[in-house]
Design goal:
By secondary structure, this protein is of the alpha/beta class. It has helices spanning about 10-25, 40-50, 75-80, 100-105, 120-135, 180-185, 225-235, and strands at about 1-5, 30-35, 55-60, 90-95, 110-115, 140-145, 145-150, 155-160, 165-170, 170-175, 190, 195-200, 205, 210-215, 220.
Length: about 240
Amino acid sequence: MYRIAVCDDEQADASYVARFIKKWASDHAVMMYVEEFSSAEAFLFRYEEDRTFDLLFLDIEMKTNCMDKKCMNGIELAAKLRERDHTIQIVFVTGYMDYIAEGYDVEALHYLLKPVTEERLGGVLERAVQRVKDREKELCLQISEGIVRIPVSEIRYLEVQRNYVTIHGVETYTVKKTLGELERELDESFFRTGRSYLVNLRFVKKITKSQVVLKDGMQVPLSRGLYDEINRAMIQYF
C-alpha cells in the first residue's frame, strides 16, 4: 500500500490529480491510498500525526490565494518537511517553471506543469514506486560483532582504504570487500566519483570540477572527466 497526498488550494485541481492517481493505480494493480489537502498547514497538521506518506503532490502557488500572510506556499512546506524527513517524495505541481532551483534544494522528484496529463503523471508514479522499493533496500554486512543491515537510503558515501571499504551512514562500518562488490548491491542513486569513492546523490549539495560536496560538509574527490557525467546523473536521478 502506497500512501499519496495531494495538496492544492484549488479543489478542482486536487481532485483532478487524485482521480488520475487512482486510475493509474487501478490500471497497474497497485494499491494506493490518496488523501487531499487544501493548504500546506492542513497537510502539515496531518503529517505531524502520521508520517507514513510515501509521496506528496504539492502545488507551489497556494499562498497567492491565502488571506493570511503567514500561510505557507508549496516551497516553504517542502523546506519544512526536509528539515525532518528525507524519505517522502515530493512532486511539485505548478503552472510555472520559475522554481527549478528551489526544487533541487528540497530534493523534489519531479515537476508537473498544469494542466497535468495522464501520461506524465503515470511516468512520475512509476518513478516514485521504484524509489520506494529502492528505499527499502538494505546492505547486509558481516562485521566482527556479527551481521548488520544498513538501509541503502541512509548511506552518504563509501570510501576505499587499502583493502577495506568504509561505509558512512548514520553509523560507520568498515568491511573487507571491494568497492565494486558493494556497488552491485546499491541502487541508482550512487555514483562512483573515482577509484576510491561512491557517493549517494541524495546527499550531494554541490559539485565542482574537482570535488563533490555533501550536505554534511564532506568533500569527496571527483576524478578528471567525470564532472559532466555526474551532473547528468544528478539531472536524471532528480
